[in-house]
Write a structure and sequence with these properties.
Helices cover 40% and strands 18% of the residues. It contains 6 helices and 5 strands. The longest helix is centred in the middle third of the chain and has 16 residues.
């Protein structure tokens, strides 16, 4: 029998549940409280890595939602809104004041991380910082 790998669909799901892609209804996950997230600095890393990963979690019934993003570039902000159905803000502080959030992903430029993290912590939110490795 094939061994299960933690990052792939289990053999039980594949053969017993006919769920090759791991997207069948998961009552345990679906019953959890929804986590409402915002992204500060929704540039290339957020758009190519974080947003698609969050959408993948949703296909597996993970109750997570990106409700808003902040990005200075209006054209890019509007693109994200169109693709992911969230709200866009040019100003991160305004976003944190106006949105009902559980946490923030800080993915902007490294030199702004401290400022964005402190702003998010001051808003009493959980914070995950995406660090660029060069």
């Amino acid at each position: 029998m094939l061994k299960d790998k933690p990052t792939h669909t289990s053999t039980k799901e594949i053969f017993d549940c006919s769920d090759i892609y791991g997207v069948s209804f998961d009552k345990k996950r679906a019953c959890r409280k929804k986590v409402r997230l915002a992204i500060i600095g929704a540039g290339g890393i957020a758009q190519s890595k974080y947003l698609p990963a969050i959408m993948r979690l949703r296909t597996m019934w993970e109750p997570v939602e990106v409700v808003a993003v902040s990005r200075r570039d209006e054209r890019q902000g509007k693109k994200i809104v169109k693709l992911y159905g969230c709200r866009w803000y040019a100003n991160s502080e305004k976003m944190l004041r106006e949105e009902d959030l559980d946490g923030v992903l800080v993915t902007g430029p490294d030199e702004l991380h401290a400022e964005h993290v402190m702003m998010s912590l001051d808003a009493n939110l959980h914070v995950l910082v995406g660090v660029t490795v060069t």
